[in-house]
Design goal:
alpha+beta, Alpha-Beta Plaits, 2 domains, 4-stranded antiparallel beta sheet, two-stranded antiparallel ribbon, 7 helices
């Protein structure tokens, strides 16, 4: 009769190495696309989850015959998922209206689940989940780049010493190129000229724009610099 509370060293080794490989495959895709959590992070999450699953199932076998001890193989493993939530939260970054890192946080969560599956010997589910995750990440990445490129937003920031008519010129130039303006904010600042010690008004414009092609940003920047009164132009990812 097979002892359910005992595991051979070879089987234990196979499970940990398998967790390393499966977690590494997901991490490799994230690493390739320059995301915060890459190859090493996913390997550590997957192997660590598998180890905790093994520990939960087989680490307390010495207490099986104790009458007052009640073992639950899932108790320790159940704490992995909430713990991964804190790690995943560290990869989520909000910059203005844009939030990045959600996919990477989700991939860490899935890597933990795959590690738990491998640790429990649920091999088919672990392999199938890894395949589904990789196919989803690869294919959806291609689809997003091809069909959703126009959803990228940027902050166009300009500093001008002319208040009247400047915003009209800027908006008309952007509309001619098919660029959508989503938000505009203005800030007025007084500055003193070194030549005649007179105070002048300077206007800082922050315009949130949606661009269909990132290559247009160079053209926009060069044209904005030629407008009368424009002192500084910069573009930042939103």
């Amino acid at each position: 009769m097979v002892d359910p509370w005992h595991i051979e060293p070879l089987d234990l080794t196979i499970r940990l190495v398998l967790a390393l490989l499966l977690g590494g495959l997901i991490g490799l895709e994230r690493e390739k696309n320059n995301h915060p959590a890459g190859l090493r992070t996913h390997i550590l999450v997957c192997v660590g989850s598998a180890l905790l699953m093994l520990l939960s199932m087989y680490g307390f076998s010495a207490f099986v015959d104790e009458g007052n001890v009640r073992l639950d193989p899932a108790r320790l493993a159940a704490q992995v998922i909430p713990g991964i939530g804190f790690l995943g939260a560290g990869t989520i970054i909000r910059n203005g209206f844009s939030i990045t890192g959600l996919t990477t946080a989700a991939s860490l969560w899935v890597a933990a689940a795959i590690g738990l599956s491998v640790g429990a010997g649920f091999y088919y589910a672990a392999f199938l989940s890894t395949a589904v995750v990789l196919i989803s990440l690869w294919t959806l990445n291609i689809v997003e780049k091809k069909y959703f490129e126009n959803r990228r937003t940027y902050w166009l920031k300009l500093v001008t010493n002319q208040k009247h008519g400047t915003l009209t010129h800027i908006s008309s130039n952007l509309e001619r190129k098919g660029i959508t303006i989503r938000q505009i904010s203005m800030e007025e600042n007084d500055w003193e000229s070194e030549e005649n010690a007179e105070k002048h008004e300077r206007l800082t414009l922050s315009i949130l724009i949606r661009v269909s092609k990132p290559s247009l940003l160079i053209t926009i920047t060069e044209e904005m610099k030629l407008l009368p009164g424009i002192e500084k132009v910069s573009v930042e990812s939103a």
